[in-house]
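Final report, closing paragraph on structural work. Over the funding period we assembled a curated collection of sequence-structure pairs, and we close with a single example.
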Amino acid sequence: METIQAYLERKHEELRLLNGCLRHRLDLARPRSVDDVVTSKFQLTAALRAEHELHEWKATETAWSHTAAPASGPFEFTYDYQRADLTVRGPSFYELDCGSASTAIYTASGMAAISAVLLASAQIVAKADILVLPGSYGETQELIRGLVPHLRLRALDLPLRDALAPADSPRILLLDSCSVAGALEAVLRCDGSGVDLLIFDTTCFAGRSGRIRRVLSWARRYGIPLVLVRSHNKLDSLGAEYGRLGSAVFVQDNEREPRTKFPWPRLSAETRNAVRLLGGAALPAHFPPFVGSAAYLALTKRRVAAILRNGRHMVRHFAANIPALAAELHFAHGLYVTLRGSRPLDEPSARQAAEDMSNDLRAGGFPIRHAGSFGFDFAATEWFHDATTDQYSVRVAVSDLPTELWGDLTAAIARWWQARQSTGDAG
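Its predicted structure, as stored:
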């Protein structure tokens, strides 16, 4: 259990880390509330981005100045016009062992990264099956169905049985960190010899999560080529959504050649070309300058641990008190849950319910907002569409809050949702 005093001290350390990245530091008082933490954090990250633009004024889109040497904290950049050839030198967001080599391509968002990889695959394979687990990110499935016709979407059910067995056509496995609980474990228990390419969306797992390392080990065991795709403005920016940043990291086992039907070495080059043609290159100003230090890693680890701890509490409370209104409590990541209506919700009604709940509970003094994404220092509500079931619900994203306060907020959410459903105001 983390007390409010311990929480505020930890948040003060996070704010000091951010402030220390400024050339001209802000005069910040110690935070005395969650609102102080949130306000100061967003002020600091805005100041960091503004200072970057003022200092790197020569590093423009047209790359007109040959004396520019753009950087953001430990990251250094070289590029020509429109960053089509962007090269980044800096720390990895992952923890890869010495037996692996990796190539990172940074993009303007997580969706830009996975879009580039999937579209690039058309240049190296005429047709392939892409296997998708229950609960996989809806927009990724929408992308495949609408814009990537050479990939045949195959939705898998649990238990997997022989779903990953060898087949005549090439097979891509899309492993998504936002899938339902048990899906990742089911994959890791399977024989992977029928998988020709593994694309792993790691967005909902901390960059140094043990689950990522287990997937790396599984892919290596079966000689599967691996691409890690990620949105970095969730768990990698200390809860402040520093900037839109994504990446595709191509991981190569140094000790053996991959076993695959794909001409694997071409995929990274074709992905880089897709990023260029789509105009999806990353902005140097969106690389968090506080990443990579020992202090950053320690604080991120503590943040994620607190979120997961709070998430487990919320799951237990909702399962005990509003089980009939819980749409999905058991996601693999543990970062959010979803609530259903007493009657089916559509997108407008789910959106309105998320906004009403946030407004009412915030008026009662709770740190909650109607906001997309997750990993904040406040609870966040938003509408949610399950692409597997085609049903709408309200997503409640778990936040990094003191234990007692989070317990009170969890109980308030359950009471509000139950009362609203009993009156029929939502859905």
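Residues 294-321 form the longest helix (28 residues). The mean pLDDT is 94. We thank the funder for supporting this effort.
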